[in-house]
Write a structure and sequence with these properties.
The model has no long low-confidence stretch (mean pLDDT 97). α1 packs across α7. β3 and β4 form a beta hairpin. The radius of gyration is 16 Å and the shape is globular. Helix content is 44%, strand content 23%. By secondary structure, the protein is an alpha/beta fold. It contains seven helices and eight strands; from the N terminus they run βαβαββααβαββαβα. The protein has helices at 14-28, 38-41, 65-73, 75-80, 96-110, 131-144, 160-173, and strands spanning 3-8, 32-37, 51-59, 62-63, 83-89, 116-121, 123-124, 155-156. Strands 1, 2, 3, 4, 5 and 6 form a six-stranded mixed β-sheet that branches. A two-stranded antiparallel sheet has the order 7-8. The N and C termini lie close together (10 Å). The chain folds into two domains: 3-122 and 159-173, Rossmann fold (3-Layer(aba) Sandwich), CATH 3.40.50.360; 124-156, no CATH class. Bound molecules: flavin mononucleotide. Flavin mononucleotide binds at residues 10-15, 57-61, 88-91, 122-123, 133, 137. The site of flavin mononucleotide has 19 residues, from α1, β3, β5 and α6.
Amino acid sequence: MANIYLPYGTTEGQTAKIAEYISDVVRAHGHSADAADIKQAGDSIPNGYDAVIVGASVHMGKHEDYVRDFVRKNSAALGRLPSALFSVSLAAHGDAENAESYVEKFEAETGWRPAQVGLFGGALLYTQYGFLKRHVMKKIASDKGTLDTDTSHDYVYTEWDGVRRFAEDFLNRL
Ligand SMILES: Cc1cc2nc3c(=O)[nH]c(=O)nc-3n(C[C@H](O)[C@H](O)[C@H](O)COP(=O)(O)O)c2cc1C
């Protein structure tokens, strides 16, 4: 049985949901998992874990700075233990090239080249954004053409089957 740590960064909560979902998949396979918001859990990987899956979301073209700092600080452990990254963005829904470029930038900034990377669609939470954010996000969505623009609804583009496969692939590699 493996003990897996899932530190993540999240701004509006979708990456947290995905980390919890991966934890559920891991547990369903008889392993143990702890998802932890880096903002609360701190910037170290606690002792006793056999593998690490880091999650982060993209805003204004980049992942959270504190996740970048977490990865830099823990580069020795991430190099030693089986590890993976999952990146949450709207680009991952229909604009794979951009979604990959965010990860390339993150890898260049951290020096960490995870053996496995998951690119997952995020959420457009129009009803939870303030006026300005809603306006900006609607403009971005309408420019993209692949995203919804009715601001009276929220939209989740995460493909949960893909998240499950990512988790199972990770377990198979352990
Ligand atoms: C202000 C703002 C800026 C964003 N910028 C980008 C972006 O540059 N590229 C992108 O692909 N997605 C972008 N997104 C979409 C987020 O990645 C998506 O909403 C994701 O679900 C956020 O995950 P989180 O809730 O875990 O923070 C942006 C979202 C917001 C609200």
